[in-house]
Specification:
Largest sheet: 2 strands, antiparallel
Structural class: mainly alpha
Mean pLDDT: 94
Order of helices and strands: EHEHH
Shape: globular
Low-confidence stretches: none
Bound molecules: zinc ion
Strand content: 5-15%
């Protein structure tokens, strides 16, 4: 995993702060899964993102969306 930083506000996450949300997989995310299985690789899944306590709840509500849509929506809301 990457060092935990909130995907919305870039806040560095302390231990036990916030968490990872796994969004609905896009076609490209499924391809990534299969590739990783084939090469026995590991890494940060492209459909997963870290969130701070402030943004975690909203991200959880949006986890049925794909990551690109959810992130676009949250960034938009953040600017209001
Ligand atoms: Zn945040």
């Amino acid at each position: 995993m990457r060092p935990p930083v909130c995907g919305i506000c870039d806040h560095d996450l302390e231990e036990k702060e916030g968490g990872v949300i796994y969004f609905k997989k896009r076609f490209s995310d499924k391809v990534w899964d299969r590739t990783m299985k084939r090469i026995h690789g590991t890494g940060n899944p492209p459909n997963a993102e870290w969130f701070c306590n402030k943004h975690y709840t909203r991200a959880k509500e949006l986890q049925e969306l794909t990551i690109d849509k959810a992130m676009a929506l949250m960034r938009e809301e953040e600017q209001k």
